[in-house]
Amino acid sequence: MLELKKLYFTVQGNDAENGAPRNIIDGIDFNFEKGKFYVITGPNGSGKTTLAKLIMGINPVSGGSIFFENKDISNLSITERAKSGIAYSFQQPARFKGITFRDLLSIATGVDDEKKFLEMVGRVGICPLSFLDKEVDATLSGGEIKKIELATTIAANPKLAIYDEPDTGIDLWTIGPMVSLLKKELTKKTTTIVVSHNKAFLDVADVIIIVDKGRIIYTGDLKKSLPLLTDLSICAYHHKCEGDQDAGCLR
Ligand SMILES: Nc1ncnc2c1ncn2[C@@H]1O[C@H](COP(=O)(O)OP(=O)(O)O)[C@@H](O)[C@H]1O
Ligand SMILES: [Mg+2]
């Protein structure tokens, strides 16, 4: 349903690189199949967010192409991609003064109906109903805004949902429900891509994709990925660091 063909994102290198172009995404080829749950993982700075943003159209492609449901979307705007059924949850969601969670839901779904909103928030389950009238501004905690962003993405009922590190800043007791929610929301209609290092997501992935230095270095199941994850010191499966940043945890 989503095909990446020789995809590149190239930037001007910094002074240390003598300004030589640098491929942040370096020729990625991959086909995502309908209805599967993909987890993209890899070291910090390996290009995961950049890849997710290329798919949503937040970053322009420098080379190659992206096909969604057999249509070339490489040059479509974010809005056009959203209209064709792709939704995106930012690693660091934007905050908007004067806009409430209710407004975001209304924009994402085109619905303006109290009963429907209560239903949506209830179905998503990770945000209390009292969030509906919260302003999505600087007063929200990092975890609250992530929950609101995630709920808004799910409510849009996309064909393809992309979540960049949805667990960042989220309380531990919400992660379990969040994982089952994203798996559960995976109806026949939705394909899910989660960027995460979290064991809870890796454990339920249909396919794990490991990105390193802008390339896909592994696709497959969790079991065979474990030696690589350990080599790359990806936190959740790195036996030495156990989440301790002083011990070299990458998260
Ligand atoms: N627009 C850009 N210009 C220059 N460098 C960028 C740009 N976007 C991303 N990068 C760099 O590309 C690398 C990969 O970034 P990112 O995709 O955010 O990594 P990840 O999400 O895997 O941690 C980083 O070194 C980042 O600084
Ligand atoms: Mg990132």
Compact description:
This protein is 31% helix and 25% strand. It is of the alpha/beta class and 251 residues long. Residues 11, 24, 42, 44-50 line the site of adenosine-5'-diphosphate (ADP).
Characteristics of this structure?
251 residues, alpha/beta, Rossmann fold, 8 helices, 25% strand, globular, disordered C terminus, binds adenosine-5'-diphosphate, binds magnesium ion
Mean pLDDT: 85
Supply Rg. Answer: 18 Å
Total E-strand runs: 10
Strand content: 15-25%
Report the principal-axis shape.
globular
- Write down the CATH class: Alpha Beta
Report the end-to-end length measured between terminal Cα atoms: 31 Å
Taking the sheet with the most strands, its summary is:
6 strands, mixed
What is the strand arrangement across the widest sheet?
6-7-8-3-9-10
Can you name the CATH architecture? 3-Layer(aba) Sandwich
What is the topology?
Elements: E1 2-12, E2 21-32, E3 37-41, H1 48-56, E4 63-68, E5 71-72, H2 78-83, E6 86-89, H3 101-109, H4 114-124, H5 142-155, E7 160-164, H6 172-184, E8 191-195, H7 199-204, E9 207-212, E10 215-220, H8 222-231
Parallel strand pairs: 3-8, 3-9, 6-7, 7-8
Antiparallel strand pairs: 1-2, 1-4, 4-5, 9-10
Magnesium ion binds next to helix 1.
Could you explain the architecture of this structure?
The strands form two sheets. This protein has a six-stranded mixed beta sheet, with helices on both faces. It is built from eight helices and ten strands. 31% of the residues lie in helices and 25% in strands. Residues 237-241 and 247-251 have low confidence and may be disordered. It has one domain (2-247): 3-Layer(aba) Sandwich (Rossmann fold). It is globular and about 55 Å long. The protein has 251 residues and is an alpha/beta fold. Bound molecules: adenosine-5'-diphosphate (ADP) and magnesium ion.
